[in-house]
Each structure stands twice: as structure tokens, then as C-alpha cells.
Amino acid sequence: MKTRNKLAGMLSALVLAAVGALMLSRNVSAAGEGKITGTVKLAGTAPHQRAIDMSKEPYCQKLHADHPVTLENVVVGSNGGLQNVVVYVSEGLPASAGGQVPSEKPKWDQKGCQYIPHVVALDINQHFLVTNSDPTSHNIHPIPTKNPQWNKSQPPGAQPFDVSWANEEVSIPVKCNIHPWMHGWMAVVKGPTAVSDGNGSFTLDNVPPGNYTLTAWQETYGAQTQKVTVAAGKPATADFTFKAK
Predict the structure, then answer these.
(1) Given 15, 70, 90, 168, which residue has the most CB atoms within 10 angstroms?
(2) How far is CA 177 from the centre of its chain?
(3) Sheet holding 161-163, edge to edge
(4) Bridge partners of 37?
(5) What is the pLDDT of residues 191-241, one digit of tens each?
(6) Host H or E run for residue 14
(7) Residue 221 and residue 215: Cα distance in Å, rounded?
(8) What is the helix, strand, coil percentage profile of the chain, to 5?
């Protein structure tokens, strides 16, 4: 009996030691991860964004009667920040990074006869939900070149559908076959990625220490790259400036 109790005690000690080592490893890993923050700006005068004619869809035309909707291919904030720019690590990411698919499911909504958000960034195989918040039928038609193309309709009140992309593809255009003015973009990237907000700001989280190449992609102005170094537990900064044309 004493021998059995002794063995049980040794086993418990080994299990506790293993769990403690695993937790310590996770804490050290989390503490060592850094992040990259920055701002994307537009130099020069932003192009005029023309108003969208929604007369073919009375509901949406009435909805936006007081505030006509304009194109979103170049959206600039009051501080000159450029919105809807996809920023991601294009070179230098270790093979061990970016292997875990995020559990978060972003939502791609069809609301007010617009795709919201206009640009969404996803990880490879990350699931996202397509919804229709309007009392009218919509259709979502992505046109990828490295992933299977699909075309789905959603009547009012339909359940969201769950989809994902298996291959990396930074700029997938999306259109609606019912409402020709509806356009958006999806970016599928392995590892940390972000879309600049209304101030042009972005943050890439969970970036391991190392030397990287960042790419910033914008639907009108194309892509820019720059080098950045991330130190353990310290934020790095990377700013981009696109020239108006």
C-alpha cells in the first residue's frame, strides 16, 4: 500500500510539473510576442467620390435619401488617413507562426445595399459569415483567381452562411449581380493582418520577434512594401504613404 501511494504521489508530482512547464512556456511565448502599429496616409488631394445611383432599388434609395452613398475605392479621413488598406506580413514569418486558424468569425453584411465592411481581411481557412440585413434580396459573388469561385443569393430573412478560403489571395473582388453598384474586397493572408480604420490606423498583433517585410495593399493605388524589425515584447512602428492620382 505504501509503495502504491508513493507511486501515485510521484505521478501527481510529474503531472503538476508538466502542466507548470507548459503554462510557463505559454506565458513566455505570449510575453515574447510583439505587435506592429502604424498609419496609412494619402499625400495630395483625394479623388472625388461620385454618388451612387440606387434608383433601381427603392428601399435603399429611400434609406440613403438624406445622406447619399458614394464610392469607397478611396476613403480618406479628416487627418489624411487612408481607410480600407490591407496590411500584412509578406516575408519573414517563421513556419511555426500563423499555423492556428483564428476562431473568430468576421461578418460580411449586406446592409443598405452596401457590403459592410468594404474590405475584410481573413486568415487561410478562417470561417466568416455572410448576412443580409436588408428587406430585399442580395447576392454575393466573389471573383478569386486562386480559390474556387462561387455565387450565392440571400433573400430577406435568410440565415447567414458560413464560408472560408483555402488559398492565400490578397485581393479578391466581390460584386452583387442584383445591384451593380455593390462592390467590395476580401484579402486572404496567412498570419497577422489588418485593415486600416477611418484614421488610417492599423495594428498587427501576435507577431514573433524578427525581421519582416510588410505589404500595404489598396484597391486604387496598389501595393507598397517596407522592412520592419520586431523586438520581443515591444511594439514596432511602420507607416505608409500613398500618393494621390
Answers:
(1) 90
(2) 24
(3) 114-116, 107-111, 128-132, 161-163
(4) 203, 237
(5) 999 999 999 999 999 899 999 999 999 999 999 999 999 998 888 999 999
(6) helix 2-32
(7) 13
(8) 15, 40, 45
